[in-house]
Amino acid sequence: MRNIKLVFWSVLILISLLWLVADPAVFQADGVFSLRGFMMQYSGLLAMGSMSIAMILALRPRWPERWLGGHDKMYRLHKWLGISGLTFAVIHWLWSETPKWAIGLGLLTRPERGERLGLTNPVEQFLAGLRDPAEGLGEWAFYASVLLIAIALIKLIPYRLFFKTHRFIAVAYLVLVFHAVVLTKFDYWVSPLGIGLAALLTAGTFAAVIVLFRRVAHGRQVTGEIVELQQYPGVRVLESRIKLQPGWPGHQPGQFAFATSDSQEGAHPYTIASAWDPENPTVTFIIKALGDHTSRLAAKLRIGQQVKIEGPYGCFTFDDGAARQIWIGGGIGITPFVSRMKYLAQAKQSGSATPPQIIDLFHSTADLDEGALARLADDAANADVRLHVLIDAKHGRLTGDRIRADVPDWRDASIWFCGPAGFGDALRADFAAHGLDVNTRFHQELFSMR
After folding, report:
1. What's the rounded Cα separation, in Å, for the pair 116 and 380?
2. Which of residues 444 and 393 earns the better pLDDT score?
3. Burial of 106: CB neighbours in 10 Å, binned 0-12, 13-18, 19+
4. Which of these, 406, 332, 330, lies nearest to 364 by C-alpha position?
5. In whole angstroms, how far apart are CA 211 and each of 55, 86, 162?
């Protein structure tokens, strides 16, 4: 989280500083209408800068994933930038419209326009001739962006509708690029601010075209065939094993992939619950019925069905080198730990050299399925992991005090958490209050892709 916060605020601060260098006359602004011109430029720059980087991250690039802490963190940054872009766009629109409303209400007097100087630069003349369509199209693109981002953020709206509409943000973005190129103050383009803005708009435009043609991460997709399905009704979980065609690069325990079983529904992210074996190229997903799509999977999926798998992604891979680890899986958040235990058991059976580790796994769940718990206990035994299962109705909620009581040497451990975000945040704060360096030793998967 620390790195994505650093990137987020650095982007906003850098754009602000470059703008102040490019247009220091803002400090001599006299009156609302004078300030209005500066603020419209500033808010527009912040909006387009944020949207451009969000659009680039929509391509799911691999290169920043490790530094940002995983694809889940990268998506969180994408979301923050999208929301901030929308916020600055609203501010930009308000600076445009509010003074007009104030004039209509008699609160402000429209200033007299001075004589406009003739434009001598042919490029500036050309852009000036496009001002009216840029303003009109930009306003409609703004309204469309508000609607599309609202659909993305309101989780009560079905994922299917989100999937079908979200890529049209790319259309709105391209219109806003036209709006920005035409209406950005011409003098900015020869400053470091303009050079940076041009680079962002170019990269964002490229990303938008890729999104529109549905070519995002096309080279990281392989076809698979469902070869096994197993239901655990007590915990509303479906386990599916998929045999992969050539092209899958392999995965590490704790990573996830996007799976598409219905082209109308689109790709959904699922943590991989199996260790990688090149001799038997399969992936296993453990999917809990949490929404419309996942609740229908048990009835819709069938043996032999073709699915598309994209990935792998994520840095929740247990590779911090700690000899002592504490794992905490809340509900379906147990999945990455299942994958890691299968990997450890596989390494143990093959005699592969692995660093010795002492591991305690805490699994807290509100649901109960004896078959699923038996499978989990077998995986833990085969991997030499000490398992603690807590059923909410029977044992109460898992707390930091309970973990510390069961693991006296917790100060020497790294903690890996996957589960409900609020639960993880509470545990993180609790361990921080007890002196744990949570920035380096508390690893939390932010597995929420919407």
Report:
1. 77
2. 444
3. exposed
4. 330
5. 9, 19, 14
